[in-house]
Every structure is written in structure tokens, then in C-alpha cells.
Specification:
293 residues, Adenine-specific Methyltransferase, domain 2, 8-stranded mixed beta sheet, 10 helices, 8 strands
Length: 293
């Protein structure tokens, strides 16, 4: 069953904390318009990334999780010690900004992260790497994304972002767990929003090499049988609707399908050495296990 988006039930949140490829920030309020009211249930976002949807709806009770430990270290520190998070960013930004060779400093911070993956280095890298494309080499797992063409935001700007985000995640518990563990925690009446690596385009990104869509479908099926409401963002179409991504979905698992226009592909632009790609308009599919209430 296909349908158009409902009027957004929550206002958009235009300020993102992390720069992140595939970020749903601009359309998170539209995605959230399909969620049932979270009066007593828990909201789950098990592929957290930039937490665009979670931050937009600011749930009273939520579990945000991801299997990538340095990423979760950022979110856990935002909740427990936002001043420390700001200090992490400011220390690296000053080192970068005061150098005559910013690229050299970026590469040193990236080397430090690759030597010992940690949230402090990773925070600066997400804000300064090309388009937020966190790319890892398959051979050794090293982050290999080059520095982006634009200067990282100032510490003052980052502080303002932290001040906006901090009260919005007060009700969230951040956990470094696999998505399967998060699904197992959900109970009837809870809501799970999934934004996993995309089959067609994101094989180079963190965590994508080991991800199997079929396994996720099994988890969604089990959650649905328990009365959990699941929403899934997945590959839709590209190149102005001329290229439909063919993904085989389990029969009768999803009751609703909608299209969300997410704009031009930053990942494709990265892979094409910065071309503007005016014709590369990307549409996501939003799949739901239940009709909106």
C-alpha cells in the first residue's frame, strides 16, 4: 500500500550535531509523521548515526544505539558531560585552525583515530571529513576519507549545536549494541525506526561490509509479531526517478510504503570527485509494518 506523507506532527529540527552522509535531518519530521503517539512506549533507533529522527522528535523515553563504539561514545558524552564534548572538538579545531597546513593536522587526527579508535578524534573527523562520508578500507578497517573542501565549524558554532541537542536527548539511553540486541529489547507498543546501510550505495561505509538486509528483515518480522511498530528507511530511486533500486522484500511484512525525497546524493558526489550531479536526485522508501494511527 503506497501513500503520501501525512502532515508533520512535529516541527523540523534544522541543526545537526554531526555531519553525516545519508543524514535525514531535513526530512526527519516528515518521517516521524508516520509514527504513532509515544504516550507510554519506548522509541528505538538502532542504526543511530547522526540521530536525526531521534533528535527531531525528542522522545521522553528512548534507546539510541549503534554497533560502532566511537560513535556511541560521542552520544554518551553529550548526555553525561556536554562540556567535555565541546572541549574535545575545540581542542582539535584550534590545532587545525592554528596550523598553516590544516590538511596535515587532519591527517594526524585521522591517524590518531586509526591507531586507537576513540570518540574525541571521531567527533572532529565527522565534522571535517568530506561530506561526512565515514569510509573504512575493507583490507584493514582504517578510516580513509580525505578532508572536506570546507573549513570545520567553529567551536562557538559547535557549542550552540550542543546546547540545542542536549535537552532533546535527556530521555534517551545510548547503548553500544548490535541492532539485533536492540530489537530484542522492544515490547508491544514501542516504536523502532531503522536507517541501515543502503544496499545499492553504501558498501564502503562503516559497518556496511558485515550488514545483511535479510537478517534485519528477520528481526523486523519478529518485532512485528510482538506488537512493535517498525519503520524502515531503505533504498528507493535515483537519477530523478529513472533508476529504481530492486530489493526483494518479505511478503506481507510491510503494510505501508511512502517516498521521501532526500535531495542529491553526497556519497555519489564524493565518489565522483565533487561533481555537482544536478540530475542525481535520490528518493528513499519509507516502509511501515502498520498503518499510521
Amino acid at each position: 500500500m503506497s501513500m503520501t506523507l501525512l502532515p508533520p506532527a512535529v516541527p523540523p529540527l534544522k541543526t545537526q550535531l554531526l555531519k553525516w552522509v545519508g543524514n535525514k535531518q531535513r526530512f526527519a519530521h516528515e518521517i516521524a509523521s508516520f509514527f504513532p503517539p509515544l504516550e507510554s512506549g519506548t522509541y528505538f533507533e538502532p542504526f543511530l548515526g547522526s540521530a536525526a529522527v531521534l533528535g527531531t522528535i525528542a522522545p521522553k523515553k528512548a534507546i539510541g544505539s549503534d554497533a560502532f563504539k566511537p560513535l556511541m561514545g560521542i552520544w554518551q558524552t553529550l548526555k553525561s558531560d556536554p562540556e567535555l564534548l565541546i572541549n574535545w572538538y575545540e581542542t582539535r579545531w584550534k590545532r587545525f585552525n592554528q596550523s598553516k597546513d590544516g590538511k596535515k593536522i587532519y591527517e594526524e587526527i585521522k591517524a590518531s583515530f586509526n591507531e586507537d579508535p576513540n570518540p574525541a578524534d571521531f567527533l572532529f573527523l565527522t565534522r571535517s571529513c568530506y561530506g561526512g562520508v565515514v569510509r573504512f578500507r575493507k583490507l584493514d578497517g582504517y578510516m580513509s576519507t580525505p578532508m572536506g573542501p570546507h573549513d570545520p565549524i567553529t567551536p562557538e558554532s559547535f557549542r550552540k549545536r550542543v546546547e540545542i541537542w542536549y535537552p532533546r536527548i535527556k530521555g534517551t539511553k545510548f547503548m553500544n549494541i548490535d541492532y539485533k540486541e536492540a530489537f530484542e529489547m522492544a515490547r508491544a507498543g514501542d516504536v523502532i525506526y531503522c536507517d541501515p546501510p543502503y544496499v545499492d550505495s553504501q558498501g564502503i561505509l562503516y559497518g556496511a561490509q558485515s550488514f545483511r538486509l535479510g537478517n534485519l528483515m528477520d528481526s523486523i518480522q519478529e518485532a512485528k509479531s510482538k506488537g512493535v511498530y517498525v519503520a524502515l528507511s531503505i533504498d528507493g530511486s535515483k537519477r530523478s526517478d529513472t533508476h529504481q533500486i530492486d530489493i526483494e522484500l518479505p511478503k506481507d511484512l510491510f503494510e505501508v510504503e511512502a517516498s521521501v525525497n532526500i535531495g542529491r546524493s553526497m556519497l555519489k558526489r564524493f565518489q565522483s570527485l565533487g561533481e555537482t550531479l544536478e540530475g542525481e536526485v535520490v528518493q528513499d522508501r519509507l516502509l511501515l509494518t502498520h498503518s499510521p494511527i
